[in-house]
């Protein structure tokens, strides 16, 4: 049973778990979706500004989404994402990084019959506690009230 938006804890930092990033997944994701040389070619990446292979920003955002869904969202009756207010890539993600995800529900507001607009702030941090991604997202979540 998924809970309604009104049950989401506002202002509480929620732990969404961790993900260990591998070079194989970085290269596989980027080969399919963002084949820039510093994501897919070890030799060329070694001579880039990054000094080696790094994860695509889209890959990093996908890791956030997976952790947020499995860690928090599956417990709520999410209808759909609505808007990414901001998305900031703060430092490169490399093979061997262990990323931890947290979200804070900023607000839950009625948004028509049967649904609420939920605004969250999310962060991915590496194993050193340094943020690699920050974002703000609005989603629609079913309300306790009938549609």
From TrEMBL:
Belongs to the enoyl-CoA hydratase/isomerase family. It comes from the Bacteria. It holds the Pfam family MaoC_dehydratas. This is Dehydratase. Gene3D superfamilies: Hotdog Thioesterase. The lineage of its organism: Bacteria, Bacillati, Actinomycetota, Actinomycetes, Micrococcales. Residues 19-107 form the MaoC-like domain.
């Amino acid at each position: 049973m998924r809970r309604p938006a009104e049950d989401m804890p506002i202002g509480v930092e929620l732990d969404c778990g961790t993900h260990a990033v591998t070079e194989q997944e970085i290269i596989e994701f980027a080969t399919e979706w963002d084949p820039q040389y510093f994501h897919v070619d070890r030799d060329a990446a070694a001579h880039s500004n990054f000094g080696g292979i790094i994860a695509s920003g889209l890959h990093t955002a996908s890791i956030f989404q997976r952790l947020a869904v499995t860690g928090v969202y599956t417990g709520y009756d999410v209808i759909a994402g609505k808007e990414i207010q901001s998305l900031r890539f703060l430092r490169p993600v490399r093979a061997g990084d262990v990323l931890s995800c947290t979200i804070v529900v900023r607000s839950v507001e009625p948004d028509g019959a049967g649904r609420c607009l939920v605004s969250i702030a999310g962060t991915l941090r590496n194993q050193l506690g340094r943020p690699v991604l920050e974002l703000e997202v609005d989603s629609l979540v079913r309300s306790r009230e009938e549609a």
